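Run log // design_07
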């Protein structure tokens, strides 16, 4: 493979995926470059997993063009799959096998010889920080350990591209940060990462570039910083009033920022100067139960582009 860092690993043009009358992916264009971490950010049902399954060459393209590592999944599926690592949303570990054998036997499926498989399994146990669990049963592992083992298993064939579908769903904050650190190390080692997530902090932490997906289409594309700069203000003032009061109070603070979003439990006032917004609200005789000034995030970008939050 060329050492050109701009080399395209994944290229999609007008990519569509339908299930009967349901069109899950509605003609998207995507370019993933060598060595980058690329994200698909959006809520459940946005079309992220359907896109990932096409990229993984396990689900046929309905229409449009898709090239993975320069190859066509319709004709080169086995060759593509041999160079991909896939970490599915659900753990698919073999509970009948111990931790080491989950890696070793999976490596044998790729035709890797026994000695190399054994060495690789030991390396990956160390990478996943579960060497002391090598002979343990999978069911005895914590959720975070299972997730790390699943990622380790997806690396057994030294893949060029690692696909991660919602990698940290269901994990506690500490386990998520351990996993983020491992993924960052992989990226630094030159592995191209493709990540789907509905966690905006995950996308901000891990992704060089991302697309915001909603209802099967791409609403925006760029780096996390570019998206925030383009679609939000520097800061957000969160104002929490009594139950049911937010809708009626929105117009009373609307002129204090570039825009106001009404959520069921709070008002979001978008401004480059959040503290000034809070001061002005109090000067108007309004008394929020709680206030918070924070920087804008990808969650705010999504709200701006779709009118709803990522958790919807």
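design_07 sequence
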């Amino acid at each position: 493979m060329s050492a050109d860092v701009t080399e395209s690993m994944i290229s999609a043009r007008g990519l569509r995926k339908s299930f009967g009358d349901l069109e899950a992916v509605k003609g998207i264009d995507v370019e993933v470059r060598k060595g980058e971490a690329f994200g698909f950010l959006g809520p459940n049902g946005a079309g992220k997993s359907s896109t990932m399954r096409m990229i993984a060459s396990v689900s046929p393209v309905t229409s449009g063009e898709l090239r993975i590592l320069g190859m066509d999944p319709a004709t080169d599926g086995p060759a593509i799959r041999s160079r991909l690592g896939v970490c599915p949303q659900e753990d698919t570990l073999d509970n009948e096998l111990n931790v080491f054998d989950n890696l070793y036997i999976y490596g044998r499926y790729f035709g890797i010889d026994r000695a190399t498989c054994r060495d690789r399994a030991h390396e990956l146990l160390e990478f996943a920080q579960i060497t002391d669990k090598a002979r343990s049963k999978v069911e005895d592992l914590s959720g975070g350990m299972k997730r790390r083992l699943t990622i380790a298993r997806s690396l057994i064939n030294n893949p060029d591209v690692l696909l991660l579908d919602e990698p940290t769903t269901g994990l506690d904050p500490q386990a998520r940060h351990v996993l983020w650190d491992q993924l960052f190390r992989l990226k630094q080692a030159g592995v191209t990462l493709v990540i789907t997530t509905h966690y905006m902090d995950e996308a901000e932490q891990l992704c060089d570039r991302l697309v915001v997906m909603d209802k099967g289409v791409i609403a925006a594309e760029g780096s996390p910083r570019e998206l925030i700069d383009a679609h939000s203000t520097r800061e957000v003032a969160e104002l929490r009033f009594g139950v049911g009061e937010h809708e009626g109070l929105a117009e009373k603070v609307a002129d204090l920022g570039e825009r106001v979003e009404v959520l069921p439990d709070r008002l979001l006032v978008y401004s480059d100067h959040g503290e000034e917004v809070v001061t002005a609200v109090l000067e108007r005789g309004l008394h929020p139960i709680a206030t918070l000034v924070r920087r804008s995030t990808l969650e705010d970008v999504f709200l701006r582009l779709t009118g709803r939050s990522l958790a919807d």
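The CA atoms of residues 232 and 300 lie 7 Å apart.
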